[in-house]
Specification:
Helices cover 44% and strands 12% of the residues. With 306 residues, the protein is α+β, with helices and mostly antiparallel strands. Strands 2-1-5-4-3 form a five-stranded antiparallel β-sheet, with helices on both faces.
Length: 306
Amino acid sequence: MEDQSLPAAAAPASASASPSLDRRAELSEFLRTRRARLRPSDVGLPDFGRHRRVPGLRREELAQLAGVSVAYYTRLEQGNGRNVSAEVLDSIARALRLTDAEHAHLTHLAKGKQHKRKASARPQQVRASLGQLLESMENVPAYIVGRRSEILAWNRMAAALFGDWAELPVAERNWARLTFLRPDYRELFAEWEQKAIDIVCQLRMDAGCYPDDTRLSALVGELSVKSEEFRRLWATHDVKEKSYGVKRMHHPLVGELSLNYESFRMPGDQDQALVTYHAEPGSASAEALRLLASWGADATRVAPAP
């Protein structure tokens, strides 16, 4: 395993002075953007077309669907979720057609717990047994990612596929920074936009769980200044859990790769996830991974043959 944990000292010097995210504003914008994406016809209401002055559902329509008063819903959309019940949140989630991840995000924003402030300040530690597991996965690129998209640990094959993160300062071992600020990672992922969306969606989930996390606030602020794409995606307020799927890549040594990835939440720390990549047996991508395995971390430092 290449690294054991991300120490607290790795935070940028400015992080301690960064303000936390405004939970009330986050709740307000999340509800407004979810409401705006629904048309009346989506929920069985009449649509008066061009005569509507707001995108999506009106507050009155949403309140009717959720079975609450307009005044009550208006207060909630203005960020006042302190006394809202779980039953009301469930009704609003159904009315807004929220996914499970969106429903969880809404609950975190409306009824967040203060104790999470201390949890967000603690450095995440990767258990020794997980480090051994990573090392044993000799032919499978794998890494552990934590809060704020921080890369906490990885194996030799991950270094061969993504680059040797051991050469980076600890604070730079972060998927959001790599994806939005490094041109080589933009070239690595064939569907870079989808990779960027996935990262921002997960950061939004983290922000809902830990709005007082100043390091997360500092990261969001930095990326908002340096990347127009990040600002655009952050403004959507979309959320999504880590999942599974297929990633297509352009590796500088072995060329095109199509890899299946899986994410597994870690028992004992649900903010950590083990992410693995594998190729279909007998495929060209499987052969490419075999070649990368022979190079190890040196793969990203070897130029392709002319």
